[in-house]
Amino acid sequence: MALTIEQPGLLTTVQDQGRIGYYHVGIPQGGAMDQESAQAANKLVGNTAVEAVLECTYTGPAFTVDAPTTIAVTGADLPVLVNGEERPSWRRIELAAGDAVKFGVLRGGARFYLAVRGGISVPEVLGSRSTYAIGRLGGLDGRKLEAGDVVPVGEPTGLLPEVEEIPERLRPGFGRSLELRIMWGLYDHLLTDEGRRRLVEEEWKLTPVADRMGLRFEGPGVEWIQRRQPFGAGSDPSNIVDAGYAVGSIQVPGGTQPIVLHRDAVSGGGYAMVGTVISADMDLLARAAPGTATRFRAVSMEEALQARHERAERLEEIWAL
Length: 321
Hints:
The protein is an alpha+beta fold. The protein is built from four helices and 20 strands. The strands form four sheets. It has a seven-stranded mixed β-barrel. The longest helix is centred in the last third of the chain and has 19 residues, at 301-319.
């Protein structure tokens, strides 16, 4: 069983739940940027949570299947077209051999996920099938999909679930405004009081400069305290002597406009991390389209842990359907 790619879409890659355990040697965890949506798609087709899916950004691929199969599309809101007929997303779709699938224009969100019964069956690299394009690891030859690719699909390992769609109450929204909860970082003390206030009290807008490594925001800018740069740091006010980066770190290269590091971010460098988006909100960030009005809200460790617990409960509810 395989998918034959006729048109690849803007950025379509193979992703699973990530490559854990190699960040200390510079290889990021990667995996689906919106992991909740990816897991929901796998649930609908009878896969496990860790099976590989296709992550599609802004535009999707056009492909045909060479055998009967089952698919599901979750994530961003857009038309799913099978032989030109629109089918619902967040619901299981049965395909016959030779069926052609393509996608319409996004109505909301940024990324969507295609799960195929049996999972995308590319070789594992360091324990994951996820594509890390910068390192040419995983996926299909370590790159995004191209026209003419034949994407292999594995054999089903489980039964189809009784549920055929994800209930509305368990589906995320894809609005034009967003609140991201953050914890202050190791270097927030380098911001002035006004700089800290602007970060968490003013509105920021997500720019089109957004990929799997990081997402840039524009807004009122932040302010840094006047200081003498330490030996080994650059002249930019946000420069530090190199340190490790957490996934979700908020950096301000150039001194004023923040970038949030995401799944494929580098593991260290010379920019101050003034805060970190909590893990429970990283999927929310992945869903945001350019132009999304965003506010950062500082929370405590206890609130962050509670949010992580609530996210885990949502995933458990999806898998219990």
